[in-house]
Each structure stands twice: as structure tokens, then as C-alpha cells.
Amino acid sequence: MNKIGIIGNGYVGTATGKGFATSPENQIFSYDKFKESPNTLDEVVENSDFIFICVPTPIFSDYSGMDMSIVEGVVGEVAERVKDSGKIVIIKSTSLPGTTKKMAEKYPQVDFAMNPEFLTQKNANADFLKPYRTVIGCEKLEVGEKVKGIYQTILPPDQKYIITDTASAELAKYMSNLMLASKVLLANEFYDLSQKVGANYSDVQKAVEADPRIGTHLGVPGPDGDRGFGGACFPKDTIGILGLAKQIGIDMSALQAIWDKNLKIRQNRDWEEMPQAFKKDTE
After folding, report:
1. CA 18 to CA 66: how far, in whole Å?
2. What CA–CA distance (Å, rounded) separates 219 from 241?
3. pLDDT tens across 10-22, in order?
4. Which residues on neighbouring strands pair with residue 137, listed in sequence order?
5. pTM
6. Quick check: 56 pLDDT over 60?
């Protein structure tokens, strides 16, 4: 029996728990500090061999970067209790590249893995059981293989697994989301160009989406009726990477231009009302 703990019962934690619960080989324990939970934190840590951290990583209200303090705080609480136990702490929260390695260096007697989620908020439960790929970051291959093992209880035999280092796993999540976000902004610009030159954007969209290399989701306005991209993930991931790039001196001016254009055309900054995405200034 695989004993699996979930800390944080937002849409990611909920999908993770429900997904693993589809196999009788797995027993689930879950806890959320801010919600009624079936278990306490102590019960999750004591009873679980695999502990998933699924807590928010919001951006700062001044858009300067991403707040990793919630993840770091929860990891600190858990790590002190699982030293030399063989339990694996799996960070599933979207985390800046280098976060998991930093935690592993801080708590060397704990086995860590990074397992980014690629879920849509609207269909998280279904997405969890039908992933395009399962990415597992680890510094020890045997840790990655153990995490792969619990996924094999719920995913098809031909599931694609990518086991890599933790920083690469973290960055893969950001690059995936920001490639999609960039595509949304390019579609918006070609929509404007279509209006100007008298083209039928609906037909342009169909012709472009017919190329499997490009994919879909080129509709303008988007499914929420607004221009650009909103929601929890794309805005906070954009700001997270831009903040990191500025801190370490990497030129990401193309991504900056995409974000600036998004702010220009987007009417509803809905992410600012989502606590999992936006940390409001309480001072």
C-alpha cells in the first residue's frame, strides 16, 4: 500500500488526492491549514511515505516577483519531522528554479522531489489522470523512480515520464505555461492586424490551428470574453520568471514585452482577486 499525503487542498491538491485515490493500491491522507480536512498535519506526516506540497505561490502586489514563503514554511515544518525516515517530500507547487535544490541543501537528511503540475483550473481532476507527460525532478535517481512508481498505479502503461534534475523540472513548468501565454498574445496581435487589413480572423485561426505544431487556443477574445490572458497561472508565472531573471541578470525582454502588452489590452485583471495567485499588501 502506497501511503500518500497531500498538504494543501486547493485545485492542485484536490486533483492530486482524488487522482491517486482511484487506485486501491493507494491510501490518501490530506490536510489544509485553512479548510476542514480529513486529517491533521501530524497525521499526514506520520502516516505518509510520499508527502505532496500543494500550497500557493502568489506574486507580490507590486509585481516584483513570486512569494515562495508559503512553500518554504510548509517544507520547513515537514522536513524537521521526516529526517532519515525514507519519506519523500514532493514539491508540486509551482516553484522558482532552484527552490527544491535549496530545500534539499537546507535539509540534507530528507529526500526531495519536484513534480510540477500541468493542470487547467477548470478541468484539474480530469487533467491529472490524462497528462501529456509526467515530469519528476530529483537529485537521486532512486527517489525519482519511487515517485514514478506511485504514478504507475493510476496512469496508462504507455505514459511518458521525464525524470530529470529538480531545477529542470521547475523550469519546464514555467516554459510550458509561458509558451502558451505568448501564443495568446501573438494571436491577439494577429486579430488586430486581421481587422485592419480586412481578413476574416476566424478563417485565419482555423488555417493556423490546422498545423499540429502550433496547436489551438488562438481564439480572440478568449473563453472569458476578454483580450490577452488572465486567470491564476499565466500572469503569476510570467511575473515569477521576470522577477527571477531580473535578480540573476538574464535578459528576457521578449517576455517582458508580452507581459506589458497583456496589461495594455487586458480589461479584467482577475488574478488580483485570486489569493492563490496574488498576495495583497496587508500593510
Report:
1. 28
2. 25
3. 999 999 999 999 9
4. 114, 164
5. 0.94
6. yes
H helices of the chain, in order, are 11-20, 41-47, 69-79, 99-106, 124-129, 141-151, 166-197, 201-209, 233-248, 253-265
Judgement on whether residues 206 and 133 belong to the same structural domain of the protein: no
- 238 exposure class (CB count in 10 Å sphere: 0-12, 13-18, 19+): buried
Domain match, 157 and 190 both:
no
Give me the pLDDT at residue 198, please. Answer: 97
CATH number (domain holding residue 224): 1.10.1040.10
Dist CA 106 CA 232 (whole Å): 29
Confidence of residue 276 (pLDDT cuts 50, 70, 90): confident
Cβ-defined contacts of 250-255 (< 8 Å, 24+)? 255/178, 255/182
Average pLDDT over residues 238-265: 97
Q: Using one digit for the tens of pLDDT, what is the confidence trace for 88-132?
A: 999 999 999 999 999 999 999 999 999 999 998 889 999 999 999
Contact 151, 158 (CB under 8 A): no
Quote the domain boundaries for residue 204.
Answer: 172-279
CATH of the domain at 126: 3.40.50.720
Query: Are both 157 and 180 inside the same structural domain?
Result: no
Domain end marker among 121, 136, 164 = 164
Q: Which three cell numbers stand for residue 263?
A: 496589461
Task: Round to whole Å and give the CA distance between 215 and 138.
Answer: 30
Note whether 20 and 140 are same-domain residues: yes
Q: Inform me whether the pLDDT recorded for 281 exceeds 80.
A: no
Close Cβ partners of 59 (under 8 Å, ≥ 6 residues apart): 65, 66, 67, 235, 236, 239, 240, 243, 271, 277, 278, 279
